[in-house]
Amino acid sequence: MALEAEAIPRNEFLEGAALSMPIILGVAPFGALFGMVAIQQGFTVAEAVFMSASVYGGASQLVGVDLFGSRVAPWLIVLSIFAVNFRHVLYSAAVGRHFARWPLMRQAIAYFLLVDPMFAESERRVSRGQTLHFTWYMGMAIPIYVSWVLATWIGATFGPLIPNAHAIGLDFILPLYFFCIVLTFRTRANWLPIAAASAVSSVVAFHTIGSPWHVTIGAVAGVIVGALMPGAGAAQPEETEGGNL
Length: 245
Description:
The chain is built from 10 helices and no strands. It has helices spanning 2-40, 45-54, 58-70, 74-99, 104-112, 116-127, 134-158, 173-183, 191-208, 213-228. Helix 2 (45-54) runs antiparallel to helix 7 (134-158). It starts with a helix and ends in a 17-residue tail after the last helix. The model is unreliable at 1-7 and 232-245 (pLDDT under 50).
């Protein structure tokens, strides 16, 4: 019985690690792109890696290094990073009820590692009626975090060998990545009006107010539409386990 009890956490850790593999393929180039941009903005390799390890928020990191290069006021940099990362507040509110039974230290670790794919896969797991265990969560989160930091180091170290990252389309990884994340929820009730409201609001905000505020405005618009539409968060039955993508 003891061996059997130990096998369950290990299996869950490996299950989470397996889910992280395709995500790493999409996240690693994005991390390398950040490392390249950070060096171009005057960061050292150590500073770029430290930012990835401590902030751990791809879009906000790119906004931050861009503003560092513009020599704007520090308070504006902090406020801009908060605006881009505001969606993580919404993620925390959504999954917090599943973390509540964990010890406080585990909750703190889980919240720090709660990036976009972690939120998406956690929600999918719960919607299928599976329990969100800390072991499974860490099995998925650790490889993604390590690959992000490592990819930053690779991009910062070898990125200068690529004269123009935009010319080979690396800057398109970010919107493509987020688009795939959004599509994983398309089987949920009222997904289309919520996604459409968020998309339209963010586009309008981008052309009127500017970046990075369009990210927060789009997220808030989606939340408001979702709150006004009963059943917006209800999950639809899935035909296959991989039916979301």
